[in-house]
Amino acid sequence: MINYAKIFYYYNLGFAKLVRFLIFILLFSGTVNQFLIVPQKLTNLKYPLFFLCIFIMIEFFFKKKVQNKFPKIKTLENKENLLESFTMEALTLYISPKVNFLAKLKKHNSGRFLLKKIDAEEKEISNLDFDKDQLKDLAFDLAKKLGSNFVTEADLFAAYFLVTEDKTKLLFKKQLKNEDLLSILAWTKISFPNLEKPKQTEIVFWGQGMAENWVNGWTIETEKYMVDLTSEITKRNPSVVARNDEYKMLIESLVVNKSTLIIGDPGSGRESLMQAFALDSFSGKLKGNLYHQRFFQLMVDAFLAGAENQGQLEARLDAIIAEVAHAGDVIIFIKDFENILGSSAFHLDISGALVPYIEKGIVRIVATITPGAFKQYVEP
After folding, report:
1. d(CA 313, CA 353)
2. Strands 226-228 and 294-298
3. pLDDT digits 0-9 by tens, 122-152
């Protein structure tokens, strides 16, 4: 990890950036020049094009391999080399010259946030000599006390205040104790979650693709009663909070083609559970038959509206199930499942027609229901 940090540091120096830019211009212009001079002899492009490709490969290696390198040893598991628990940014800051530390503190977002919460101005912070080993140990201890997985640059900034406190008396002047600084550091990490974990690749939807209806078996009839929730969910980036056990149960049931009822009162997080699952599935985090699945919500009001009898509803349901089963990558979400069990204003129950499909695993359904409705309509 330390070797990667050294590469990262020297590669991002201003002089190194200038040299890289000049090399790219030289290789690119050489390639274009050879092509324009003798376009019919492509062999002239051999050397400049070769070195240009090598240069681009090195840049990609730096971006994908070095810059995104992350520590593998967590703070609670590290008992030997503390630097192995430092993030790339923190490790680069640690190995850089001491004179650059203060500039980084004032420039970095987490550093400015710490200064703001301490109620300190930049002019109150001056360049002071400090022991790097002591800084490393203090930063590691701070991260460990907070239960952080890794040591970040915010930990180093907070440790700097502690290391230089004897000379600056900054915390004393601000009437702050070490415990107060620890709380501010925790606040900083909550405000900047990407300090400890790399940025996730954003999923962007550009709309329906060409011939998507043909590929997925998506028909106009089905669009009358269902809405694709996938694009909306991925924009929200939902997460599971204090529902890890329920989340695992949801995955375990769906992986064997079983449908699931999420029982809970409105506002208890039942829909957030479903949304987090939908995001993980579509983004490829779940494997097997849960990989890259789409979520469609059955619009119960539209589905029930206009139906004169039970037979018409069952015909609509058969059409929907046939199309969803043909697509093969759709999980149906039904909000307020009790509405199709007879509790809605339409007083129509289609559970009898739906159960055979669920039992055979033809479709997978995730539905929400209140505890009272579950006892009234499902338990009997």
Report:
1. 9
2. antiparallel
3. 777 777 778 888 888 898 888 888 888 888 8
